[in-house]
Design brief:
single chain, four-stranded antiparallel sheet, 13 helices, alpha+beta, 3 domains
């Protein structure tokens, strides 16, 4: 028989104290500082900022520390804090064409104006554990002095000179679909509930703050044939961009800061339609921080969701189903609905239990009567 748990408040306080103790771990080992997390676990910080829809490395690092490294819990903390912040205005669209590049690669063209910049990447590592990292000491000098280089012979981080996008080269010959900006300001998913069918700007917002693993799985499914996405990475670029805000009293925009972003444009096949000749189409991804796996995944799913806009057939692939993708991509919403089932449901279960007992009794009585 199920009975109500007594002393719940005391038990919860004790659970919180135990959590704090587990978070700290062995007190004989130095505590991990927020600054260390921000600087040395930057990719985790970037993911929390992206999925939390708040660009603040310090707060993201704090959330990671508080959540004991549970990134979804950290995203939840950031979003909850975000709702308490006042909004003073809206910034102007960022200009990724003037990004201060730290990484820029293309799988479609070898020689690019400005060169390809490998930047800091795991792509060419051997995926072998480096046990030297377990040793105490300073970073090897070879790592500190390694420059960022490009085929043009330039070194160092590339400054924010105008660097054209690769898809612009295709656009000169009409080989890729021209993207036209919308006339109206897109809705803000962080302030307004999602409505379906969604416009492409709203879909992109949902994808950029969606769970990386979920978006990655959908992107992989399109590559395996569950969708119409056979893509080339036209360009992947990572760097910092200026954030500007229009000040009505001044009559012009002023720079209020800068953010690091990852941008990916994919080039996809398109057989044409009644109004368009055969040409390439685009998939697009833009995410806070160095988050290239997410940006590539986002661009593949974005392209898969454009099937109706481009006059293609719906094949039933999950990545083509707007409702399925957008309503399940949000890890905070999914976590809340999933984890609520571990909370007390005593009354609901008692009702189910009584129903099963009654049905069993009726079934047994019917069987005995038949015999």
């Amino acid at each position: 028989m199920y009975v109500a748990v007594k002393g719940g408040e005391r038990a919860i306080d004790a659970a919180h104290a135990w959590l704090a103790e587990e978070r700290r771990g062995d007190t004989g080992i130095a505590a991990l500082s927020v600054a260390q997390i921000r600087e040395q676990l930057a990719l985790a910080v970037n993911r929390v900022m992206a999925e939390g829809s708040l660009y603040d490395p310090d707060l993201a690092a704090l959330a990671i520390k508080q959540s004991r490294g549970d990134l979804i819990e950290a995203v939840f903390l950031i979003r909850a804090y975000r709702t308490t912040l006042p909004r003073f205005g809206a910034s102007s669209p960022i200009d990724t064409g003037r990004m201060a590049l730290t990484r820029r690669i293309s799988a479609t063209f070898k020689d690019l104006p400005g060169g390809q910049i490998l930047g800091p990447t795991f792509d060419y590592t051997h995926r072998l554990l480096d046990f030297a990292l377990m040793a105490e000491g300073e970073t090897p000098a070879s790592v500190i002095s390694a420059p960022v280089s490009s085929p043009t012979g330039e070194t160092g981080v590339h400054l924010a000179a105008a660097v054209p996008h690769v898809t612009g080269f295709l656009n000169r010959d009409g080989l890729i679909q021209t993207e036209t900006p919308g006339d109206s300001t897109p809705p803000d998913l962080t302030r307004e509930p999602m409505e379906l069918p969604a416009t492409r700007p709203l879909r992109l917002q949902a994808l950029t703050r969606g769970d990386e693993g979920f978006v990655l799985s959908l992107a992989y499914s399109t590559q395996r044939g569950y969708g119409r996405t056979h893509a080339f990475v036209g360009e992947l670029r990572i760097g910092t961009v200026a954030v500007e805000m229009d000040i009505p009293e001044l009559g012009f925009a002023v720079q209020i800061g800068e953010v690091e972003v990852t941008e990916c444009e994919t080039v996809n096949q398109f057989t044409g339609s009644k109004t368009e000749p055969p040409q390439f189409t685009r998939g697009y991804g833009l995410v806070f921080g160095q988050t290239e796996r997410k940006a590539i995944s986002m661009s593949l799913v974005d392209r898969a969701l454009r099937w109706q806009e481009l006059g293609e057939d719906f094949t039933g692939a999950p990545a083509q189903d707007e409702e399925f993708v957008l309503m399940h991509a949000d890890n905070v919403q999914a976590t809340g609905f999933l984890e609520h089932i571990k909370l007390p449901h005593y009354v609901d279960f008692q009702a189910e239990l009584e129903l099963i007992r009654r049905l069993r009794a009726e079934a047994i009585a019917a069987k005995e009567a038949a015999e």
